[in-house]
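Customer escalation, tier 2.

The customer says the design service returned an amino acid string that "doesn't look like it belongs to this structure." They asked us to rerun it and document both sides in this ticket. The original structure tokens are below, unchanged.
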């Protein structure tokens, strides 16, 4: 077997079109044979099977992938939320000429179906009428197996976020065990991870030109089975990457450039410096090319299943090999089968992002759904995605594991054209753009100052423990975008609903002023996640000093704009590294600052996240993993997880008995009582009776009691009184 990888990428729009491009663009990709007949199709070239309802909008993965393949000339059909109990529903469009593309949808199917307490959800925002249970658990596996039953010899390609996060042996929170790669369980032919446009177009083009699936081994962002390792590759055991020595860093071309510039002078004239520089750069290129022929062998599935420390080690090595500029291939034995993981895909350029988002999307659900409501569509139908990727590196988040740490931006013109199309085509548009954002609201056009540094970097985050000195934090492009969108005809208001990276925003007070003055609808949600150094260090989140600086600027510019606006902070309970004392201190901060959280979230161990490796192994993969190093405390039992959640809702009388018992056990009975500095009252109200402090017996009685209630509510929640 030969595997030849390249560090270059072929532009998405430079492939020869498939012969079926003569059929043109479909109003909606067909979901039935009747629709295929109306389009004049006798068959589909590619059929996409998805766990989501089909909405032809660029916020839905199947729409982007379907329209991209259509633009390449292929006839693409959609099977959305099929009945998985038999293979019959998977035959409804006939046999695809090239392959089935299988995805669980926009979310991992287990996270979509179950709460953090492992309880079944009754709803599903990606299903008509919000009905739960319309997709199976581990949908990618079930759908792929049904496709195989329907048409045994048709290639099966799995992708999407579920496939991305489960591509290696991974801890499964719902079964509380390590499972093998989803590729092995699904019995698919190939897995595409990350942003898959580039890999999918290349794969479809090769299959359409007669290549055999087993011979397609050199596409970045893919995983597949191999019988033997290629003889011309260098194989490194992962323990040699991380243990016992230091992490092997790739050469840094930027450092060589900088060093040469410093040494060039009177004693080193420019011509000599140029000669030395060219020689050094040649050696760097040679070393980087060598990395393209190096594969890192991860501990096997059996090893990581048996040994949590090896699991944490494998997780760390995986995350060290995620930068497309220097990542090496990985291989993992899965019970007798070897799965090969090529390095991540090359990020899309701005031109390619514009190409992908510039298709003629209908921007509405498929007509088959009639007037039924699809909540996920209702939430995003007036929003616009301006970028992809996130360099925050939060350990509990899977965005960077799927979309990557290099932010991929659309051009201003592309964004403005989409808003105009939304204005003109989407029913019910009132002039309010509900969001301009992405994984993070304010990372648009923010990147490393040097392409060479970015290519060589191995840091998991550009903003933790502090903002990297090489990161350009200029928000001017985003400010200009906001102003141009507001100036469009028919646009009355532009809101920013995506999560805001406030430690980045404080580097640009002008951005905060623009945001606060024009784009906050009364409340702005941000996520400090915690107040205590212990859990924050495991989350890779900034300390509360950044929050305080942002809050000061937010309030300053709100007053300047003459607006009454409020920050709503979000926090996570039971995150790895969080003790009972940490949650107690967070609750005290909440009370001291007058916050009462109505909806709170326990830590959710999603597959492949670094924090999930902490949860499972008790080790910290943010550092070199050793058997005798740091032990990460984690709330695992239901009782302790409920306690951590109860601290976030210290004001709820239903939580007071549990909190009293916990505070007594912690020796903090001083926090029980009716004083301002105390957390919960000494006495429990009768069922159905709201708690009333003995010191304020008459505070709700008499004339004007409603006004007093509202003022009390305002003081404790930060929310304005009712009008």
């Amino acid at each position: 077997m030969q595997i030849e990888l390249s560090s270059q990428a072929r532009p998405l729009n430079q492939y020869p079109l498939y012969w079926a491009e003569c059929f043109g663009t479909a109003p909606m990709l067909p979901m039935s044979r009747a629709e295929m007949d109306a389009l004049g199709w006798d068959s589909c070239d590619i059929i996409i099977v998805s766990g989501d309802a089909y909405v032809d909008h660029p916020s839905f993965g199947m729409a982007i992938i379907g329209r991209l393949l259509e633009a390449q000339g292929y006839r693409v059909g959609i099977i959305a939320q099929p009945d998985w109990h038999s293979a019959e529903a998977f035959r409804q469009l006939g046999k695809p000429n090239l392959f089935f593309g299988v995805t669980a949808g926009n979310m991992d199917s287990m996270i979509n179906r179950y709460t953090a307490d492992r309880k079944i959800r009754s709803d599903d925002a990606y299903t008509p009428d919000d009905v739960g249970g319309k997709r199976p658990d581990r949908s990618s596996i079930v759908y792929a197996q049904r496709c195989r039953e329907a048409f045994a010899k048709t290639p099966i390609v799995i992708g999407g976020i579920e496939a991305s996060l489960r591509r290696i042996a991974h801890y499964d929170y719902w079964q509380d065990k390590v499972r093998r790669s989803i590729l092995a369980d699904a019995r698919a032919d190939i897995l595409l991870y990350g942003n898959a446009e580039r890999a999918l177009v290349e794969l479809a083009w090769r299959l359409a030109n007669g290549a055999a699936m087993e011979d397609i081994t050199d596409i970045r962002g893919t995983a597949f089975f191999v019988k033997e390792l290629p003889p011309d590759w260098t194989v490194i055991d992962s323990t040699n990457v991380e243990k016992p020595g230091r992490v092997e860093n790739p050469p840094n071309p930027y450092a060589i450039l900088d060093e040469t510039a410093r040494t060039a002078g009177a004693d080193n004239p420019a011509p000599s410096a140029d000669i030395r520089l060219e020689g050094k750069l040649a050696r760097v290129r040679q070393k980087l090319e060598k990395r393209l022929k190096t594969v890192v062998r991860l501990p096997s599935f059996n090893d990581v299943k048996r040994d949590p420390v090896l699991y944490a080690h494998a997780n760390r090595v995986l995350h060290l090999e995620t930068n497309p500029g220097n990542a090496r291939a990985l291989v993992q034995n899965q019970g007798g089968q070897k799965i090969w993981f090529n390095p991540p895909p090359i990020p899309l350029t701005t031109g390619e992002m514009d190409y992908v988002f510039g298709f003629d999307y209908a921007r509405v659900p498929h007509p088959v759904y009639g007037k039924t409501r699809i909540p996920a569509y209702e939430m995003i139908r007036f929003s616009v995605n301006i970028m992809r990727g996130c360099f925050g590196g939060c350990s509990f988040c899977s965005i960077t594991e799927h979309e990557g740490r290099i932010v991929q931006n659309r051009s201003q013109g592309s964004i403005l054209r989409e808003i105009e199309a939304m204005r003109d085509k989407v029913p019910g548009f009132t002039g309010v753009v509900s969001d301009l954002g992405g994984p993070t609201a304010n990372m648009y056009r923010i990147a490393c100052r040097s392409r060479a540094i970015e290519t060589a970097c191995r840091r998991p985050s550009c903003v933790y423990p502090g903002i990297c000195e090489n990161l350009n934090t200029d928000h001017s492009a985003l400010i200009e975008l906001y102003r141009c969108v507001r100036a469009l005809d028919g646009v009355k208001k532009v809101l920013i609903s995506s999560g805001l990276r406030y430690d980045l925003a404080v580097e640009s007070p002008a951005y905060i002023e623009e945001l606060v003055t024009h784009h906050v609808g009364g409340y702005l949600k941000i996520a400090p996640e915690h107040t205590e150094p212990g859990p924050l260090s495991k989350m890779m989140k900034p300390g509360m000093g950044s929050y305080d600086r942002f809050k000061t600027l937010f309030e300053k510019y709100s007053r300047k704009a003459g607006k009454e606006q409020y920050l709503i902070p979000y926090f996570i309970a039971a995150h790895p590294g969080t003790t009972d004392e940490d949650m107690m201190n967070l609750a005290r901060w909440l009370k001291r600052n007058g916050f009462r959280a109505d909806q709170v979230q326990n830590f959710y161990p999603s597959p492949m996240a670094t924090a999930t490796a902490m949860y499972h192994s008790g080790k910290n993969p943010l550092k070199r993993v050793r058997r005798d190093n740091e032990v990460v405390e984690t709330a695992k039992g239901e009782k302790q997880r409920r306690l951590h959640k109860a601290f976030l809702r210290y004001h709820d009388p239903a939580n007071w008995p549990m909190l009293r018992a916990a505070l007594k056990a912690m020796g903090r009975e001083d926090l029980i009582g009716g004083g301002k500095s105390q957390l919960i009252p000494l006495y429990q109200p009768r069922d159905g009776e709201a708690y009333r402090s003995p010191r304020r017996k008459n505070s709700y009685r008499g004339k004007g009691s409603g006004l007093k209630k509202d003022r009390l509510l305002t003081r404790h929640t930060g929310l304005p009184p009712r009008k």
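Tier 2 assessment: The sequence is consistent with the input. The CA atoms of residues 494 and 702 lie 44 Å apart. The chain has 27 helices and 21 strands. Sent an explanation to the customer and offered a walkthrough call.
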